[in-house]
């Protein structure tokens, strides 16, 4: 039986080579899309799943009452107090939420250590990487201890036993206590875990939210009650004390200033569903991009549906050609079930082919996809194969059953009497599916256009500063207290180099905001402006404009003591009509109380973070005023002429005079800023590629369906021609319905496109308005495509030999 | 009305060259009722198709209303065809998806007849052919004779100069066949020009003139003396 089915399948495959190929190709593109989405989905969802403590480990975040900012970091005393007073907490650990890169030395080897974590307390309790060698407990108890990963240990020590060896980091000696195996993927995959994170000065400072705090609790601890207890620790030790200092009751204080709210993210969900913090990154390995993941999954499902619809459409349309076969089979005794089985069998063969094809597509384009996601996904794992089998089953069910049932329901007598080829049955389903396809195509075209115009908008928006010629060079200073001196020396030296036009600095970077922020209250309004701790001439070098008053200048002695600039947003927030010469009591103080600053100028708003955020309020002071020394880059304006030469000179100077250990690194400021929207550029590219795919599949579908339905009408066309129909009239007649379908589909596609894209745009404080233009372009291009396809086919059928169809049908 | 001189039609395939028509000369005057007879493959259908402008000749001359048709492009032929020629086929060639009314309306649509005139004309012709009560039906719902009457109505609705009938009774039983033939005779009596291809001597006897064809040539032509044959009619 199966052999018989197979023979007839092969016969039809050969008969309709083009359509069979398009069918397989369409399905395989759809399946490939789903495989891509699955690979991404699997990867993101396996983060931290290796961790046996994933349900008992929480990251502690803090929502700052006054500004609503959420920081993925905590203070040391808070963590320590919680551990001491809440019995459910088994252990805590602190670390910085980013990786360091540092020069590490061992005997006479020297190399750039990457993925370095500096931690304290029980890091390996929260992240129990299996210990391969050395101590299994209290690894980081001594401040000079370090644990290293297995791979790194092999690289450094080859066959020697690393335990007890001493490595040097930042001129300090560390003893290797343990070697661990990195489990991947994990929210943190360090090569080195150094101990001794905590500085003594921070131990009792409730104001320094500097460290990532992880807590591990007893199994079965209720998150809710834990949170309550932690919040209470906060209230007793922070809010009540602050209120007392202000001479208020805690209630009054909270009402006026808000309070710090504790947030807990369980580790097993932190990667994808963790709280969105102001910093954006909660863990060194970053955050899962849930939006992109949803977009990928959603779009790939849409594409699969599109290709399934295509398959069903083609299968039912071409089923008419098989009607006689079905009739004969029924007469000789086939039951309905057998007919259904036969056609599902054919679908199964097609799906197997399509899956093989899809795997080939995925295999070939996986490097590009990995590059796009910056991951290294591979196709393996039992889970993946199970999912593949599931897809196989699902596609067969969705694609196969409908056509099979449809065919099995042909009425034997009608079929055998002939004339069936012009039957109308199933037409409305095919047409509504076609409309649905047009809807999806419209959605994709509109989506791509809107994403594209938002990206263009971001790329071309006036940032308020000019960073084309300015490069950012990281400056590592051995002694923080002498940083200004060091900077001023370097500045002098660099200005001597030809090609260097200007040198300046500020504590921050474009795209990533400034390094600090301090709140104060003025006229009853609390504000938390970003601090721009800058050198003189910085605004001028970046071509940031002053709208009122003047820039800070070395000419005025008071500019390094008690003068500052504010930006337009701050002036507006504080309601200052004439801000110049206003004296404000700042958030910074010494033993004599808060320092007072006089506004000498208002700076035009410029973008310091990406377009997702509004321009924050800012204050600008000279680096010499408070001597924080927290700038970590030097900004150099270079001449566009002989750029390579200038960069070479800078490199030579840097490596010779500043730091022999670190390679010279630089980045153009405008490129650094462009990173704030690289995610959207990716989404734009993604949309563009998917658009091509969708349009190709939709065109296959439209062409095939138009072909089938027009070929069914050949006799009618012949009669009409005999009666005098001219080509124009026939073309109009044949393509009219497709234009109508296209329009209906477009209307259906508009609504989800508008809603979803509007939602996408909501992420941006600076965004385009959705105009009618993308909709009109989408409509016109969709119509044009439809007309091209349909008219080509229609023209072909109007050229038929009339006599053949008048006589022989 | 139609003057054909030395008309030839050659079918070429890669291997064989077949002459379907070799030097046909024929004249049809206004008001003629002419029948072409002959065995299968004699070229009679080819001749009819060329006269109906569904096919083109290889050589010779074919003048319709003093206008040369040989060498005319498809587009030009379509124009002449829709204005001057009405077709009746053996297998009716009605569009199943359209109602009787819509089928009859087609030639009027292609000749850009105004909507109000169309309705009038269709109703008039339906009345004449006794299918008024069937206008809303679809072809598959009618008997063969009724379908052929719809086809005749469609052929006549635009007042063509000549009616071409290709075995109009071939798919009908004798009663319905007779009805159709009487219809044609009736039309002829009212002045219509008709060219018919048939296998049936009986059908041919309704016409004025019969030409016999064989192997692409006309080998005989005779005038029919139509005697009112009481016995035949009674059959």
UniProtKB/TrEMBL annotation, chain A:
<keyword id="KW-1133">Transmembrane helix</keyword>
<dbReference type="InterPro" id="IPR025857">
    <property type="entry name" value="MacB_PCD"/>
</dbReference>
<feature type="domain" description="ABC3 transporter permease C-terminal">
    <location>
        <begin position="689"/>
        <end position="801"/>
    </location>
</feature>
<keyword id="KW-0472">Membrane</keyword>
<dbReference type="Pfam" id="PF02687">
    <property type="entry name" value="FtsX"/>
</dbReference>
<feature type="domain" description="MacB-like periplasmic core">
    <location>
        <begin position="438"/>
        <end position="642"/>
    </location>
</feature>
<keyword id="KW-1003">Cell membrane</keyword>
<feature type="transmembrane region" description="Helical">
    <location>
        <begin position="686"/>
        <end position="706"/>
    </location>
</feature>
<protein>
    <submittedName>
        <fullName>ABC transporter permease</fullName>
    </submittedName>
</protein>
<feature type="domain" description="MacB-like periplasmic core">
    <location>
        <begin position="20"/>
        <end position="232"/>
    </location>
</feature>
<feature type="transmembrane region" description="Helical">
    <location>
        <begin position="428"/>
        <end position="451"/>
    </location>
</feature>
<feature type="transmembrane region" description="Helical">
    <location>
        <begin position="738"/>
        <end position="756"/>
    </location>
</feature>
<feature type="transmembrane region" description="Helical">
    <location>
        <begin position="384"/>
        <end position="407"/>
    </location>
</feature>
<dbReference type="InterPro" id="IPR050250">
    <property type="entry name" value="Macrolide_Exporter_MacB"/>
</dbReference>
<dbReference type="InterPro" id="IPR003838">
    <property type="entry name" value="ABC3_permease_C"/>
</dbReference>
<dbReference type="Pfam" id="PF12704">
    <property type="entry name" value="MacB_PCD"/>
</dbReference>
<feature type="transmembrane region" description="Helical">
    <location>
        <begin position="339"/>
        <end position="364"/>
    </location>
</feature>
<keyword id="KW-0812">Transmembrane</keyword>
<feature type="domain" description="ABC3 transporter permease C-terminal">
    <location>
        <begin position="299"/>
        <end position="408"/>
    </location>
</feature>
<feature type="transmembrane region" description="Helical">
    <location>
        <begin position="21"/>
        <end position="41"/>
    </location>
</feature>
<feature type="transmembrane region" description="Helical">
    <location>
        <begin position="768"/>
        <end position="791"/>
    </location>
</feature>
<feature type="transmembrane region" description="Helical">
    <location>
        <begin position="292"/>
        <end position="314"/>
    </location>
</feature>
TrEMBL record, chain B:
<dbReference type="InterPro" id="IPR017911">
    <property type="entry name" value="MacB-like_ATP-bd"/>
</dbReference>
<keyword id="KW-1278">Translocase</keyword>
<keyword id="KW-0813">Transport</keyword>
<comment type="similarity">
    <text>Belongs to the ABC transporter superfamily.</text>
</comment>
<feature type="domain" description="ABC transporter">
    <location>
        <begin position="2"/>
        <end position="232"/>
    </location>
</feature>
<keyword id="KW-0067">ATP-binding</keyword>
<keyword id="KW-0547">Nucleotide-binding</keyword>
<dbReference type="InterPro" id="IPR003593">
    <property type="entry name" value="AAA+_ATPase"/>
</dbReference>
<dbReference type="Pfam" id="PF00005">
    <property type="entry name" value="ABC_tran"/>
</dbReference>
<dbReference type="InterPro" id="IPR027417">
    <property type="entry name" value="P-loop_NTPase"/>
</dbReference>
<dbReference type="GO" id="GO:0005524">
    <property type="term" value="F:ATP binding"/>
</dbReference>
<dbReference type="InterPro" id="IPR017871">
    <property type="entry name" value="ABC_transporter-like_CS"/>
</dbReference>
<protein>
    <submittedName>
        <fullName>ABC transporter ATP-binding protein</fullName>
    </submittedName>
</protein>
<dbReference type="InterPro" id="IPR003439">
    <property type="entry name" value="ABC_transporter-like_ATP-bd"/>
</dbReference>
């Amino acid at each position: 039986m199966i052999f018989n089915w197979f023979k007839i399948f092969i016969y039809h495959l050969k008969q309709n080579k083009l359509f069979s190929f398009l069918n397989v190709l369409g399905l395989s593109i759809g399946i490939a899309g789903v495989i891509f989405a699955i690979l991404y989905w699997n990867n993101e969802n396996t983060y931290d799943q290796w961790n046996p403590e994933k349900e008992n480990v929480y990251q502690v975040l803090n929502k700052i009452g006054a500004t609503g900012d959420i920081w993925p970091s905590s203070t040391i005393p808070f963590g320590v107090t919680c551990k001491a007073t809440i019995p459910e907490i088994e252990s805590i650990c602190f670390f910085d939420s980013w990786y360091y890169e540092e020069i590490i030395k061992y005997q006479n080897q020297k190399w750039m250590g990457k993925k370095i974590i500096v931690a304290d307390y029980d890091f390996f309790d929260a992240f129990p990487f299996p210990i391969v060698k050395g101590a299994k407990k209290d690894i980081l108890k001594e401040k000079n201890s370090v644990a290293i990963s297995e791979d790194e240990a092999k690289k450094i020590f080859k066959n020697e036993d690393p335990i007890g060896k001493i490595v040097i980091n930042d001129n300090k000696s560390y003893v290797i206590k343990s070697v661990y195996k990195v489990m991947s993927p994990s929210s943190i995959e360090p090569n080195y875990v150094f101990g001794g994170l905590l500085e003594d000065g921070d131990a009792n400072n409730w104001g320094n939210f500097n460290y990532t705090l992880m807590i591990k609790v007893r199994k079965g601890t209720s998150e809710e009650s834990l949170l309550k207890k932690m919040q209470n620790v906060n209230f007793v030790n922070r809010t009540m004390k602050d209120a007392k200092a202000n001479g208020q009751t805690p209630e009054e204080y909270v009402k006026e200033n808000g309070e710090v709210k504790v947030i807990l993210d369980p580790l097993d969900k932190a990667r994808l569903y963790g709280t969105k913090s102001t910093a954006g990154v909660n863990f060194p390995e970053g955050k899962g991009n849930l939006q992109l993941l949803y977009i990928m999954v959603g779009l790939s499902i849409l594409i699969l549906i599109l290709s399934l619809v295509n398959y069903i459409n083609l299968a039912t349309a071409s089923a008419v050609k098989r009607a006689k076969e079905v009739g004969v089979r029924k007469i000789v005794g086939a039951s309905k079930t057998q007919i259904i089985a036969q056609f599902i069998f054919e679908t199964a063969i097609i799906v197997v082919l399509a899956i093989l094809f899809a795997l080939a597509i995925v295999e070939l384009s996986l490097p590009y996809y990995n590059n796009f996601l910056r991951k290294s996904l591979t196709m393996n794992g039992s889970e993946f194969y199970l999912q593949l089998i599931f897809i196989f089953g699902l596609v067969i069910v969705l694609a196969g059953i409908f056509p099979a049932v449809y065919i099995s329901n042909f009425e034997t007598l009608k079929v055998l009497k002939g004339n069936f080829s012009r039957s109308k049955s199933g037409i409305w389903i095919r047409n509504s599916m076609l409309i649905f396809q047009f809807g999806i195509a419209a959605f994709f075209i509109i989506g791509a256009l809107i994403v594209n115009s938002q990206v263009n908008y971001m790329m071309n928006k006036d940032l308020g500063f000019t960073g084309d010629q300015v490069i950012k060079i990281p400056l590592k200073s051995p002694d923080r207290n002498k940083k200004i001196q060091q900077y001023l020396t370097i500045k002098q030296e660099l200005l001597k180099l030809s090609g260097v036009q200007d040198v300046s600095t500020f504590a921050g970077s474009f795209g990533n905001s400034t390094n600090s922020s301090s709140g104060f209250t003025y006229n009853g309004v609390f504000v938390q402006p970003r601090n721009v701790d800058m050198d003189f001439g910085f605004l001028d070098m970046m071509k940031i404009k002053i709208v009122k008053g003047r820039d800070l200048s070395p000419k005025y002695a008071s500019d390094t003591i008690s003068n500052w600039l504010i930006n337009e947003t701050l002036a507006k927030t504080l309601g200052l009509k004439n801000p110049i010469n206003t004296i404000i009591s700042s958030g910074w103080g010494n033993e004599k109380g808060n320092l007072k600053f006089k506004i000498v100028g208002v700076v035009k708003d410029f973008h310091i973070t990406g377009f997702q955020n509004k321009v924050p309020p800012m204050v600008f002071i000279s680096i010499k005023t408070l001597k924080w020394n927290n700038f970590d880059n030097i900004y150099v304006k270079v001449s566009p002429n002989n750029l390579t030469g200038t960069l070479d000179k800078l490199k030579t100077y840097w490596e010779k005079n500043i730091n022999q250990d670190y390679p010279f690194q630089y980045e153009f400021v405008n490129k650094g800023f462009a990173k704030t929207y690289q995610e959207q550029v990716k989404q734009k590219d993604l949309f563009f590629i998917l658009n091509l795919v969708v349009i190709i599949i939709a065109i296959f579908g439209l062409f095939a369906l138009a072909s089938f339905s027009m070929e069914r009408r050949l006799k009618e066309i012949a009669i009409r021609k005999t009666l005098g129909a001219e080509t124009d009239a026939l073309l109009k007649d044949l393509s009219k319905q497709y234009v109508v379908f296209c329009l209906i589909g477009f209307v259906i596609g508009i609504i989800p496109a508008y809603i979803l894209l509007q939602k996408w745009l909501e992420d941006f404080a600076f965004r385009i308005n959705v105009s009618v233009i993308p909709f009109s372009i989408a409509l016109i291009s969709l119509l044009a495509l439809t007309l091209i396809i349909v008219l080509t086919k229609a023209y072909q059928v109007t050229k038929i030999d009339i006599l053949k169809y008048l006589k022989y049908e | 009305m139609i003057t054909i001189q030395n008309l030839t039609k050659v079918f070429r395939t890669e291997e064989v060259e077949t002459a379907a028509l070799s030097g046909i000369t024929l004249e049809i005057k206004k008001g003629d009722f002419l029948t072409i007879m002959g065995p299968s493959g004699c070229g009679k259908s080819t001749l009819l198709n060329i006269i109906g402008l569904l096919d083109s000749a290889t050589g010779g001359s074919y003048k319709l209303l003093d206008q040369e048709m040989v060498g005319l492009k498809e587009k030009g032929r379509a124009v002449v065809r829709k204005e001057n020629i009405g077709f009746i086929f053996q297998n009716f060639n009605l569009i199943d998806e359209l109602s009787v009314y819509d089928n009859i309306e087609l030639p009027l649509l292609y000749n850009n007849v105004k909507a109000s005139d169309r309705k009038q004309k269709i109703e008039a012709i339906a009345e004449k052919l006794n299918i008024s009560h069937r206008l809303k039906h679809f072809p598959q719902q009618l008997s063969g004779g009724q379908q052929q009457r719809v086809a005749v109505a469609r052929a006549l609705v635009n007042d063509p100069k000549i009616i071409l009938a290709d075995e109009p009774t071939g798919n009908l039983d004798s009663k319905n066949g007779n009805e159709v033939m009487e219809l044609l005779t009736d039309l002829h009596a009212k002045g219509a020009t008709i060219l018919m291809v048939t296998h049936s001597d009986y059908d041919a006897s309704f016409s004025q003139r019969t030409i016999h064809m064989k192997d692409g040539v006309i080998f005989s032509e005779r005038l029919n003396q139509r005697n009112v044959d009481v016995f035949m009619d009674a059959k």
